[in-house]
């Protein structure tokens, strides 16, 4: 089996990772969020081809026929732009998004759906150049083609992209990669899995649970906001299990509290501080949650690529602790720009009195965006922002439970403190909600699927605000001694 880009880049991070990646089968059961990401990438690929008039596409024929076809097009000399050109150097293969003939040689271009160039993009580009060069192509220039921050809905595709010349960096990395090809091939193709090494890369590694994390109860990666330097120090000393951290190792107060909670298995609860914090909420309390969407190519006027916009909200209103007097919700029409209707209804639904309880800064950020989009509503939105009360600091500062596992998200906390959870919901997380709305708006789902999916979106957002109501209630009752702290 040929060695592909992802395997090589993984192997450069960790030999074990590369070895496992080379043998991994692509999971054919994609989630809606994964399908959406792939569709978005494909759309950008197609639009990028439109940027270069008269290019020829090497169809997805499988690597063998694609190599033959690429060689034929290059030899022909009549075609100056090739899409998905295929190259092979020993065991290594690469497909180049865009290849352009210049007066001196070839310009390799990799298309990414990001706004900013990232280090990994340059590695990606360097790999394509390394394989193409090793196969005999004279590469004289290497660029990333990214989305332009200045693009707005309605402009032509030629304004959607921005080319970033990275030839100098790529030259250095490509040489290093080519020098490393021998070692990589030996490690990746070897019968024996290379011995895993504990490094910072383990923290974000998908294989961690089956690799070095297999026998670890609570990895140190769970410690909230641990600096890279401290993480490196612990890993250098071979410390991966949280309970192995030396008692004199310097941590911040919240980190030390978390470590203590995990070591003892007992919750930490600053009752008085939590009560004082919650006493700031004024009634009627409005528990508010937004869902948003974002697409590579903006859907509506004024939006930039990847700019988030609010698609729906849920609002539970309580006149006293846990006593819901009504629930309001709104999900924008997916077939048109529903932002104006959404902000008008939201202003109406929130009234003028009582705290607006949210979870995180997200709602404040999105309200700011709505205010910029519809300046005529800026005073009303400003009044809403003044009433916001963020519930999350309760779990960042005053209540830490071992079963939260170092997380403060509603999804981590809810099943510990209440009988509610997100289990069984068709849409059960924000990325799924985002993908569902965007897929509907882009017409990528059947209209017959839309009714059920829209209901699932409403249920999910409703669960978020109901969760806030019940969490507020649970913490209040635990603090007052009406309820015991869950085990
Ligand atoms: S967990 Fe660490 S050693 Fe294992 S594959 Fe991932 S990065 Fe490599």
From TrEMBL:
Residues 286-409 form the DUF2779 domain. It comes from the Bacteria. InterPro entries: DUF2779 (IPR021301). Pfam families: DUF2779 (PF11074). This is DUF2779 domain-containing protein. The lineage of its organism: Bacteria, Pseudomonadati, Planctomycetota, Planctomycetia, Planctomycetales.
């Amino acid at each position: 089996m040929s060695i592909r880009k992802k395997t090589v880049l993984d192997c450069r991070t960790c030999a074990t990772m590369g070895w496992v990646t080379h043998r991994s089968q692509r999971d054919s059961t994609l989630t809606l969020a994964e399908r959406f990401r792939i569709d978005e990438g494909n759309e950008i690929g197609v639009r990028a081809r439109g940027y270069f008039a008269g290019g020829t596409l090497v169809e997805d024929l499988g690597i063998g026929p694609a190599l033959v076809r690429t060689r034929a097009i290059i030899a022909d000399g009549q075609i100056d732009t090739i899409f998905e050109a295929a190259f092979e150097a020993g065991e290594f293969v690469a497909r180049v998004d865009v290849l352009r003939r210049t007066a001196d040689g070839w310009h390799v271009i990799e298309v990414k759906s990001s706004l900013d160039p990232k280090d990994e993009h340059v590695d990606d580009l360097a790999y394509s150049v390394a394989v193409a060069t090793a196969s005999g192509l004279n590469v004289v220039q290497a660029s990333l083609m990214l989305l332009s921050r200045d693009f707005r809905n309605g402009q032509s595709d030629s304004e959607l992209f921005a080319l970033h010349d990275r030839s100098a960096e790529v030259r250095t990395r490509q040489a290093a990669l080519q020098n490393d090809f021998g070692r990589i091939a030996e490690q990746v193709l070897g019968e024996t899995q290379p011995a895993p090494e504990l490094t910072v890369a383990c923290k974000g590694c998908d294989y961690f649970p089956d690799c070095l994390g297999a026998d670890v109860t609570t990895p140190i990666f769970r410690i909230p906001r641990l600096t890279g330097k401290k993480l490196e120090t612990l890993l250098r000393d071979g410390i991966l299990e949280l309970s192995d951290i030396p008692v004199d190792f310097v941590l911040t107060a919240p980190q030390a509290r978390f470590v203590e909670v995990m070591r003892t298995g007992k919750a930490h609860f600053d009752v008085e501080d939590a009560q004082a914090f919650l006493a700031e909420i004024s009634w009627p309390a409005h528990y508010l949650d937004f869902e948003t969407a974002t697409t590579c190519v903006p859907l509506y006027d004024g939006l930039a690529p990847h700019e988030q916009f609010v698609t729906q909200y849920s609002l539970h209103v309580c006149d006293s602790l846990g006593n819901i007097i009504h629930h309001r919700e709104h999900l924008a029409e997916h077939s048109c720009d529903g932002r104006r209707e959404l902000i008008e209804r939201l202003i109406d639904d929130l009234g003028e009195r009582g705290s607006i309880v949210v979870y995180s800064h997200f709602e404040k950020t999105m309200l700011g965006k709505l205010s910029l989009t519809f300046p005529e509503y800026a005073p009303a939105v400003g009044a809403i922002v003044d009433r916001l009360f963020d519930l999350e600091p309760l779990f960042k500062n005053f209540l830490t439970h071992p079963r939260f596992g170092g997380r403060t998200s509603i999804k981590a906390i809810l099943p510990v403190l209440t009988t509610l959870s997100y289990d069984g919901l068709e849409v059960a997380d924000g990325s799924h909600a985002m993908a569902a709305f965007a897929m509907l708006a882009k017409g990528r789902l059947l209209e017959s699927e839309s009714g059920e999916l829209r209901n699932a979106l409403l249920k999910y957002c409703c669960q978020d605000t109901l969760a806030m109501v019940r969490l507020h209630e649970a913490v209040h009752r635990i603090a007052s001694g009406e309820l015991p702290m869950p085990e």
